[in-house]
Amino acid sequence: TRTPVNVTVTGAAGQIGYALLFRIASGHLLGADVPVNLRLLEIPQGLKAAEGTAMELDDCAFPLLRDITITDQPSVAFDGANVALLVGARPRTAGMERGDLLSANGGIFGPQGKAINDHAADDIKVLVVGNPANTNALIAQRNAPDVPAERFTAMTRLDHNRAVAQLAKKLGVTVNDIQRLTIWGNHSATQYPDIFQALVNGKNAAEAVNDEAWLADTFIPTVAKRGAAIIEARGASSAASAANAAIDHVYTWVNGTAEGDWTSMGIVSDGSYGVEPGIISSFPVTTKDGEFEIVQGLEISDFSRARIDASVAELVEERDAVQALGLI
Ligand code: NDP
């Protein structure tokens, strides 16, 4: 029998955490034959609710779930962690300045980065979901100097999945017919969902759409503003789809992209495609055996270049801001 994988989830008592934990425990994060231990990190006020969720997890009698730890101590939560999903973050409240938001999150992701550095397993893989995800991931990464930088990633898979779904609807096909879509840049309103390289049943998707106005005025804003549209419709944020995307991100990272396809992940830039090195930006990546590579050699049109540059500029500003605050 396999040794259980230690999976740490922060903000475990939140909305996304509630949608995430049951799927991790039922084998969707890593595979249907991989047992897991869950480590739930919460702030003190969240511990009781996390205990309630743990009771429900017990009541599912999941065959793959071995052990649950609930704690408010990062050193305990990340002890021996193989996979860490950093979901808990300080949300922006009305009237909050960006500097305050970044400082508050620096106070969360800095210590978590240090705890990962000091306590996690050698093969630790980190996914940051809590917003501003890319910059929170950068803060954690810079506070974990002994962990290879590429182990810190930020989630743009929800944007990727949203874009695939919108494109499939537009073309009257299923999501299975779409490949090679890319989200570039920041998980924010400046993100750029790129269909110029995408394929629909093996043919170029942009040519199949053949409507640049739809791309610029409908597709891109629909994907970028989807989170707000869901809050407007549901009266609550998109927790289940965000949790699903977190599952997809890690599953793909560990188990690989399909031959001929790729996915989108926020990762530390190596300067590919002119993206400022060191920032955490979304790229097209292939994955295999738990490692990923940026897809190289794609032709970037002027339409795409301007949008990638704008989103990267926003990430550089966020990096400069957290640097000025002494958070990295
Ligand atoms: P959610 O579980 O709904 O969201 C958690 C984070 O995910 C937020 O930063 C949110 O960003 C982000 N997020 C990313 N993508 C999406 C998406 N598509 N839709 C919605 N959210 C998205 O928040 P809750 O308030 O329900 O729960 C947060 C929990 O975290 C609380 O239980 C709190 O106690 C805990 N917490 C734990 C910490 C820790 O473990 N140290 C630290 C801070 C909080 P956005 O704000 O932009 O919606």
Automatic annotation (TrEMBL):
<dbReference type="InterPro" id="IPR001236">
    <property type="entry name" value="Lactate/malate_DH_N"/>
</dbReference>
<comment type="function">
    <text>Catalyzes the reversible oxidation of malate to oxaloacetate.</text>
</comment>
<dbReference type="InterPro" id="IPR001252">
    <property type="entry name" value="Malate_DH_AS"/>
</dbReference>
<feature type="binding site">
    <location>
        <begin position="129"/>
        <end position="131"/>
    </location>
    <ligand>
        <name>NAD(+)</name>
    </ligand>
</feature>
<keyword id="KW-0520">NAD</keyword>
<keyword id="KW-0816">Tricarboxylic acid cycle</keyword>
<dbReference type="GO" id="GO:0006099">
    <property type="term" value="P:tricarboxylic acid cycle"/>
</dbReference>
<dbReference type="InterPro" id="IPR010945">
    <property type="entry name" value="Malate_DH_type2"/>
</dbReference>
<feature type="binding site">
    <location>
        <position position="112"/>
    </location>
    <ligand>
        <name>NAD(+)</name>
    </ligand>
</feature>
<dbReference type="GO" id="GO:0006108">
    <property type="term" value="P:malate metabolic process"/>
</dbReference>
<dbReference type="InterPro" id="IPR022383">
    <property type="entry name" value="Lactate/malate_DH_C"/>
</dbReference>
<keyword id="KW-0560">Oxidoreductase</keyword>
<protein>
    <recommendedName>
        <fullName>Malate dehydrogenase</fullName>
        <ecNumber>1.1.1.37</ecNumber>
    </recommendedName>
</protein>
<dbReference type="InterPro" id="IPR015955">
    <property type="entry name" value="Lactate_DH/Glyco_Ohase_4_C"/>
</dbReference>
<feature type="binding site">
    <location>
        <position position="162"/>
    </location>
    <ligand>
        <name>substrate</name>
    </ligand>
</feature>
<feature type="binding site">
    <location>
        <position position="131"/>
    </location>
    <ligand>
        <name>substrate</name>
    </ligand>
</feature>
<dbReference type="GO" id="GO:0030060">
    <property type="term" value="F:L-malate dehydrogenase (NAD+) activity"/>
</dbReference>
<dbReference type="Pfam" id="PF00056">
    <property type="entry name" value="Ldh_1_N"/>
</dbReference>
<feature type="domain" description="Lactate/malate dehydrogenase C-terminal">
    <location>
        <begin position="156"/>
        <end position="322"/>
    </location>
</feature>
<dbReference type="Pfam" id="PF02866">
    <property type="entry name" value="Ldh_1_C"/>
</dbReference>
<feature type="binding site">
    <location>
        <begin position="11"/>
        <end position="17"/>
    </location>
    <ligand>
        <name>NAD(+)</name>
    </ligand>
</feature>
<dbReference type="InterPro" id="IPR001557">
    <property type="entry name" value="L-lactate/malate_DH"/>
</dbReference>
<feature type="binding site">
    <location>
        <position position="98"/>
    </location>
    <ligand>
        <name>substrate</name>
    </ligand>
</feature>
<dbReference type="InterPro" id="IPR036291">
    <property type="entry name" value="NAD(P)-bd_dom_sf"/>
</dbReference>
<feature type="domain" description="Lactate/malate dehydrogenase N-terminal">
    <location>
        <begin position="6"/>
        <end position="146"/>
    </location>
</feature>
<comment type="similarity">
    <text>Belongs to the LDH/MDH superfamily. MDH type 2 family.</text>
</comment>
<feature type="binding site">
    <location>
        <position position="92"/>
    </location>
    <ligand>
        <name>substrate</name>
    </ligand>
</feature>
<feature type="binding site">
    <location>
        <position position="105"/>
    </location>
    <ligand>
        <name>NAD(+)</name>
    </ligand>
</feature>
<feature type="active site" description="Proton acceptor">
    <location>
        <position position="187"/>
    </location>
</feature>
